[in-house]
Amino acid sequence: MKKLLMAMAASAALLTAGGAFAQDKTKACFIYVGPIGDFGWSYQHHQGALEMQEALGGEEKVEIAYLESVPEGADAERAIERFARSGCNIIFTTSFGYMDATNKVAAKFPDVKFEHATGFKREHPNVATYNSKFHEGRYVQGVIAAKMSEAGVAGYIASFPIPEVVMGINAFMLGAQSVDPDFEVKVVWANTWFDPGKEADAAKALIDQGADIITQHTDSTAPMQVAAERGIKAFGQASDMIKFGPETQLTSIIDDWGPYYTERVKAVMDGTWEQHDVWAGMAEGHVVMAPYTNMPDDVKALAEETEAKIKSGEFDPFTGPVKKQDGSEWLAEGEVAEESELLGLNFYVEGVDDELPQ
Amino acid sequence: MRLELVKRPQQSKLYSALSPFIAFGLTLVAGAFLFAMLGKNPALGLYTYFVEPLTELWSLHELAVKAAPLILIAVGLSVCFVSNNWNIGAEGQFTIGAITGAALPLYFPDAQTIALLPAMLVCGALGGAVYAAIPALLKARFNTNEILTSLMLVYVAQLFLDWLVRGPWRDPAAMSFPQAPAFSSWATLPELFPMSGRANWGIVFALVAALVVWFMLSRTLKGFEIRVIGQSPRAGRFGGFSTARTIVFAFLVSGALAGLAGIAEVSGAIGRLQPQISPGYGFAAIIVAFLGRLNPLGIVAAGFVLALSYLGGEAAQIAVGVTDKTVRAFQGILLFFVLACDTLIHYQIRIVRRAPLSEPASLSTETAHGHG
Q1: I want to staple B101 with a disulfide (CB 3.0 to 4.6 A). Which of A153, A335, B171, B263 is the partner?
Q2: Is residue A128's pLDDT more than 80?
């Protein structure tokens, strides 16, 4: 019995290997946590994939395949393995919850390259990780919010209390404080990445609590639409959401994965792919601000100036003096936060009107 | 003119047995239409969906991984449903089982022995059973609606798990990300044939549970009691059977199996506790239970069919290029046909041409549920 099983396994392996050799084009595969129609996180990854395909010579050179709405449990491993077996040369797993599954499958398929977004585990030489410094854009948003808000209160729809999201809230707060030291940020935890109903409810609750600017770290366009209905301003998330709030959107942080995907798939084609961990921001073009709209010229000028400073590396959003929420010192005058500390961030800076769920 | 459902005096045994197959056949036909309307080749679509996942060994392993929790939970649910107890909260019992089972290695990190895993499985089953006892006792004592209570407890369990893995049980090495530490090898449910794929002992538990529950329901006095109480509580009472005791028994069995499925899933297939451990197994198992006609052996087959629909859905996304919504549509169509066939076995449609003088005998849902 065991022999038979081994023989079957071996023949299956041969078959898939044969499939890989028969290909003359590169196959790049993507696992998305949401639907590609979310107009947020997964949508942007898919746009990046399409941009990469276009940039590298179209369908003749690069074949892309994807799976949407893959749950972050036992299903992820199967989905990734299916890709690895179906002849993918490089597989992008685009959500944190795929971390263990990505590394497990990578161990079995040493010839396939794996790229895991937002994680930190690279247990095998064929696993790379990548992420973007979205908080750079959040700082700019904070500056705009403090300028635009009449009430001096912004509402922040957060997804899950993970470092990336906490970092975003802190950067937004610091940006706002640079304009108005008494600015308030109220936070609602939606506990979801994509749930238009919940996100809309969160937006309504925040507006009812006095917020007249809405920003979100969730992926649907619902908060933008609620803000539009109530006649206040809002920031988009992940993609340019101007279509959903032509009179409402101030700007949006666009996750532009296209350049990164192009670079990495090209590396596979050229045989130069190597493991790495990339955390890139505005300077590298991974974080892009949508056009500054629905604001007076002076605010626009300030936003552009702030953006330019971050982009050139002249200024880092996490530059001291910064106090923690409890009033103790975090960053001394002129001190810049260490990247390693940011990646595990689990506290608020002073002024955030919320208790961080622990 | 209107349509009326009239209960058939006698049900056809042949059609009762054939019903799931007819439903499956109709699903295939509807599926072919679906693919054709999406502009895809229906033959290729159906082949990718229902056959291709069965042609490779690793994929068969995955089928077992996917079917195991569905079968375990659905077998437990069959005891509930046959006894006319509507446990909708298996998802919550699954979650609590995963939590109570995983608590052992977290609180006794030094207990790395061969006894650890069995103890975890027992704790998982106990946790699920205790959690299911809440709606059971509420129903038995206060006559509350168990559909509502068991369903609401699902959300409580999920939020509790969420809190645990973000708070007290968070892995300190995980950079503030929400996940518990990974299980050690002693705490991991072993794979059956690690050479060829990752199917673990969960599928064995599922098959054994199905056999045991099938034997209990069809061959023992307890099973008779459960069926009598389910069909007619009044007759059961004349027979000396206690309704309250049956409610509690059914929920305990159901909860224990869901809890066992929960700990088997995190210990075997996932490897740690994390915020999301189930893509809705507790709810999908309700489909499985009915597709299997509430017969534990039928449920085994139904579990594999539903698992296949998930795997096939993925294969079809890649090979045919349909969206993941198609998977859900397929499952919905399948359940629709199962229920429709079932209804037509027990009822016939009568066309009433003239409005009746008195109020019509309504199509009573109680009787529709009562047949088991």
Answers
A1: B263
A2: yes
Residue burial A63-94, b: 16+ Cβ < 10 Å; e: rest? bbbbbbbbbbbbbbbbbbbbbbbbbbbbbbbb
Residue A270 lies in a domain: no
The residue range of the domain holding A63 is 25-132
| Span A277-288, pLDDT tens digits | 999 999 999 999
The closest CB to that of A100, out of B56, B65, B271, belongs to B271
Q: Under an 8 A CB cutoff, do A9 and B195 touch?
A: yes
Percentages helix, strand, coil for chain B (3-state, rounded to 5) are: 70, 5, 25
Per the structure, the complete domain to which residue B277 belongs is given by 2-370
Instruction: Provide the whole-model pTM.
Output: 0.84
In this prediction, residue A15 has a pLDDT band, given cuts at 50, 70 and 90, of: very low
Instruction: Name the residue among A6, A69, A96 with its Cβ closest to that of B177.
Output: A96
Q: How many helices (H) and strands (E) does chain B have?
A: 14, 2
Residues of A in contact with B62 (CB under 8 A): 78, 81
* Listed residue (B15, B70, B31, B47) closest to B333, CA to CA: B31
Residues 6+ apart with CB under 8 A from B80: B86, B87, B250, B251, B253, B254
Q: How many domains does chain B have?
A: 1
ipTM above 0.85, yes or no: no
Mean model confidence pLDDT for chain A: 90
Mutate to test the interface with A, among B318, B325, B327 (most CBs of A within 10 A): B318
A346 reaches B (C-beta below 8 A): yes
- Which A residues, 173 through 212, put their C-beta within 8 Å of a C-beta on chain B? 191
Domain count, chain A: 2
pLDDT per residue as tens digits for the range B309-338: 889 888 888 888 888 888 788 878 887 888
Does the pLDDT value for residue B299 go beyond 50? Answer: yes
